[in-house]
Design a protein that fits this description.
By secondary structure, this protein is an alpha+beta fold. 41% of the residues lie in helices and 26% in strands. It has helices at residues 56-66, 102-116, 150-162, 174-184, 228-245, 260-274, 286-296, 309-400, 436-446, 457-462; strands spanning 28-33, 40-45, 49-53, 78-83, 89-97, 124-131, 140-149, 169-171, 190-198, 201-210, 213-222, 254-257, 279-281, 405-413, 422-430, 448-450, 466-468, 470-473, 477-480, 485-494. It starts with 27 loop residues before the first strand and ends in a 6-residue tail after the last strand.
Length: 500
Amino acid sequence: MPSGVVAPVVVPKRRSSGVASKRKRFGGTNLLDLGSENPRYWRHSKNKREEFNEGDAATVRLQQRTRRSWQDMFQSRYENCLWIGVEQVLFRVLQVPRCNRRSELEELVSLQVDRLSPWSMAQTVWSFDVVPDWRGERQLQTVLVEMAKRDAVEELIGKSLDCSMRPDRVEVPVRYQMQSILSQSRSVDGAWIFPKTSGQQVSCLVAWWQEGVLHHIEKFNLSSVSGVDELTQCLSATSWAGEMEGWLTKPCVWHLVSDGRLSEQWLPALKAWSGQDVDWVAPIDAGELALLSAARATGPVNEANLLPPDFRDQFRRDDVDRAWGWTTVCIALFVMLGVGAFFGLLKWKGKELAAAEKRLRTLDPKYKETMRLKQQSELLEEQIDLGRVALDCLHAVAVSIPENVTLDRFTFTEVKSGEADNLVLRGTADEESQDKIGEFFDALGKYTVKDPDEENEEDAAKKPKQRNLFRDVKMPRQTRRTGGLWEWSITAKINREEPK
């Protein structure tokens, strides 16, 4: 963006890092500032914001607020953020080719960290973020690299662990200060001075912008608040270096971002040194910076994060182990409750079973006597039914047998296998009455009796219902004997209904 045009956004939209980062729901942020003189704590959620300074009661509340629960394993966007002081961080600016994937950009930056870091790689904790350019599209992109000594970061994490807070992010708040101030300024070009006092010592972060591009950022540690002469010497040296390197091509505009007390001491000295007016800008309140940090929690957790990866993995494993531990305890409690309920129910059912057995022993003689009487009643009914069927058969034979046909044997056989009962008739007839044996056969097949299923006599009288007595009458077998007699036999199956 050309000089003199307002910057578009407070938090610029970041380019894709190749593999899409999954943005999860934002639950809230616990933010702890241990890098300032008076450590403070902020808690941001969707509907509430809290802030308090360090103290006995505040520390207790901090431990309660930041203690992780098993739900945090599934809601990783409810983050614990830890601020580190600018005096413990080293900043460097890189101009690298544009990359479509963040993994490619990370590889390019990692190759430069070994050269830029004053410490060994084992003692260096670093991260980076892409800085937006306000000059339009370029072939290169600006990357801000943040480096800190691992011992200092671990010491800060140890202090946060004393407060029962395990951080998900370690950030430098001056980044949000610079980002917010530049986004609200009419022009980003010039040198932006961000001093921070810690007792008598002062750490100054100076960012050099030319033509909407961040070219250089450097930190100066001053011996005291009144050491503005040390600052002007460092600024002069950096200006000469910028002119020689070619990134400082225009007269520099100076901007001082500080509180009113410090600006009263430094503005006259800076004006006298530069020979021009120095723009004074009031810094953003720490609470507003905390809001910007909370908004950053919705992004990928590995961007501009100085938390060592091994700590992040360890905290994650601890969360998983604790979740599994609580899950095991809950399952054990449920199992114990289930076993207790089972034995209680078993004891209760045992008492019911004992009572039922006692009652059964009381009713057993009566039950046996009832079953004996029932069997006798069924046997009597069956005998009565058999007698009725036998009488019907005798009546059918007596009515249907022709004259001169003699019945010699009447055999009635009861079948227990579920088939119909059998009736076998044997007799003789003379030569003249041989044809009447067929008539006898036909009469037996057509003989009907009253259906015993009729409910009463009135129903039977109104609508009589008859059924065949025999359902399967076989053809008579005739054998000629001496003396002109014919011996015959007829077999039939009785169509008998089972007694109800």
